[in-house]
Amino acid sequence: MEAIKTLYDIATTMVPAMKDAVFVKTWAGLRPANPNIKPFLGPVDGWRKLILATGHFRKGTLLSPITGEIVTSLIIGEPSPIDWQPFTMQSHQLTANGG
Predict the structure, then answer these.
(1) What InterPro entries does this protein's entry cite (predicted)?
(2) pTM of the full structure
(3) Which H or E run contains 12?
């Protein structure tokens, strides 16, 4: 509840008229992440035509342009603008197992 109050305080400071607003409904979006905070990117072994692009946690909007470029390069079979190998399912499994 403290986070909601903090957001409310910030919002009403920026838009004082919101203090008189009646809130009918609230919503919270989930931020998918994994323990090492790296997103999952790339094809999944054993699943033809499946490409993951998830787990960006707080940086989903920030990383969406480069994620889109990486996924596009994988789909059309062209070189990626960056090395996405550190973000594959396999790299996460190795990290999770201490490898």
Answers:
(1) FAD-dep_OxRdtase, FAD/NAD-bd_sf
(2) 0.64
(3) helix 2-14
